[in-house]
Hints:
The structure is a homodimer. Chain A has helices at 17-36, 43-50, 54-58, 64-83, 94-110, 117-124, 131-156, 166-185, 192-207. By secondary structure, chain A is mainly α. Chain A has one domain: Orthogonal Bundle (Tetracycline Repressor, domain 2), CATH 1.10.357. In chain A, α1 packs across α2 (43-50), α1 (17-36) packs across α4 (64-83) and α5 (94-110) runs antiparallel to α7 (131-156). The longest helix of chain A is centred in the last third of the chain and has 26 residues, at 131-156.
Amino acid sequence: MADNFRSDAQDRVPARKGELTKMAILEAALAVAARDGLEGVTIGVLADRLGMSKSGVFSHFGSREELLIATLLEYEARFLNAVLRPAILEPRGLLRLKAILGNWFTRLGHETQEGCLYISGGIEYDDRPGAVRDELVRMLTDWEKALARAILMCVETGEMNEEVPVELIVFELYSLALGFHHNARMMQRDNGSVLIRQVFERILNQYQSRPAGI
Amino acid sequence: MADNFRSDAQDRVPARKGELTKMAILEAALAVAARDGLEGVTIGVLADRLGMSKSGVFSHFGSREELLIATLLEYEARFLNAVLRPAILEPRGLLRLKAILGNWFTRLGHETQEGCLYISGGIEYDDRPGAVRDELVRMLTDWEKALARAILMCVETGEMNEEVPVELIVFELYSLALGFHHNARMMQRDNGSVLIRQVFERILNQYQSRPAGI
């Protein structure tokens, strides 16, 4: 159960032309969202980009809201495929948690040019109620749960002590992701990876179980 | 020198009607920026809001860019007046650092309804080169320097040890501010103050000088 996540688009073999077109639209939507935010993703912009008619795009997604939600789901599938899936090859516990965090921040590092949709969407939609915001909150909550599960596995394996404040660590980790993104994009510094790995080490060391007597 | 900062608008006694009008425009600009981001602050919107002509607003700020920069400077003056100025009444060192952090996060807590311009501006302008972005980076850098100075004073007073990694702590503190903002606005949780104070305590304790032998 704990290891489940949506499978990635790259693994699907599109059976029909309609599916291929839908994937091309989502690919274009992700590129536009990376550059201009979800705000920039409109049926008109995607139609222009793909040389399709608006009604052609519209036939795949019944509304702009549906298009934005599909774009978010595709982003999430790719995020989990890059960050969570490879880490599941590591044994449960500290090695897996470190792999997840390593993959996450490697991905954030690659995304500094275009920006992370979780982060940019979180700012764009924090004051806009509706289905898109609800989907973003669901995605963010699921990601927090995945991090919490990975921390709790370290307690199960005895690598972290039982008093580990899971909610607090998840809050710190997400704060660091936001700080990393800000440091790279707004402050245009390249020292984020070094800084964030130091904080990680400190957080993980702090709660690791010590052999008795030490 | 270290204690210098721009004095707040509230302390100034506007000498002329022109100055009063300029302050009313900035007041309106801050309200619009809080709701819609700097993006929403245009000469037309402010003219509508104040029942002035566009050319009336334009006569106080030669361009939209100049208006945005004046809005940022006014925001900064109020931010420093609320966060840094009262803390300077505390003795240099740990008490002053704790007062600055306490004031900062109290203010962020009040701002969760409208959002902090440092944070929302940082996302809005992270990929838009120009004078507004440059001013925001200058403000953010100055705030980081103010935090760094407050930490270094704790080394001077002997309350923190000399190896304290100032850059890393400033990165962590700013990351926590971003996390707090996200937690309150996007996730609509009210546990941010509790979480952030726990991390603060841990960061400050970690680097505090211990009496010899302990």
